[in-house]
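Changelog-adjacent note: as of this version, every example in the card shows the full chain rather than a window. The one below runs 370 residues end to end.
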Amino acid sequence: MIRIEGLAKSFGSHEILKDITLEIRKGEIFTLIGPSGSGKTTLIRLIDLLDYPTSGTIVFDGADTATSEKGRLAIRRRMGMVFQKPAVLNTTVSANVAFGLKFRGVPAEEARDRVQQALDLVGLVDLAGRRAVTLSGGEMQRVALARAMVTHPDLLLLDEPTANLDPVSSDLIEDLILRINKKFGTTIILSTHDMIQGQRLATRIGVIMNGRLAQTGSTSEIFYQPNGREIARLVGIDAIPNGIVTENKEGHALIRIGETCFEAMTDLRERQRVALGIRPEEVSLTPADASLKRSSVRNQFTGRITKMVPSGPFVRVSVDCGVRLTALITRRSCTELGFEVGTPVVAGVKATAIHVMADDGRATPSSPYP
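Full-length structure tokens:
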């Protein structure tokens, strides 16, 4: 659907995007994640042909977008764009949705039918006659989605569409995105700073760091096999540095960090310096007095809880066991197990749940973790 090669964008002497090469497949939801200011919005604006690249090419459905203004307009009319902050005209909801059809010369009767269908899609039929500026933020964003979808785009671009919305409105927008993709087969490119949203919606994910495409892959690859410590931190993993592979037998390795020894699966050679990525939900905690119970978990370390941070229905529990491990435990479990700062516990993590990275930030060549 879209092929991007060597794309770069500068504003004056400031280089925003650097050598982006990427392919977006027809019918997928491709999600861009990255820190604020990393270049996600700039990339989406370039794909939507709102801006011109400094160098590189964007090919849309076989057509090079570096063409005449008439050619670029023809390509843009096959796209729909929804921005982070919903923008609506001071007219009725119906008139807002119909706005793009006027420029395309769609006959009035057909336009009415398409507006009705678009409003039905986003659940705003009952508000068709309301002034759009009187709607809530979530309703305005649904108007913006209807306005984009009424033109039947092949590509829908969404720039952090739920960033300013409450959780209920965000859920409605996310459900709409999935339904649009499934019902119409619309290719969707979405940028978000919400890591959980990225996991929920994406077919594939691209990570933008410092203007570069640092990694692309499935949600499992990005969130469980991050390509380096910087990406690991972005996706919620506090990577443990300063490890060294002391032994490796057919991919089953012993890795020492200070006085602590981990068993993990990796192809990295002996004496290689490494960092370990362990997702908090992969770390189990049990009271220290239960440590005599047999377990198949290879890595078990005794330590004490040093920090507990609420995170919705969960608690992020930090444990000092020679190295710092972080576990994600339900609030109920914390209460039932009597966990508090200072409680002695046993932290367990499976060897297959540890992602091993070379200390220069490169990922393990072939990790067995799904």
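Structural remarks: The two ends are 28 Å apart (CA to CA).
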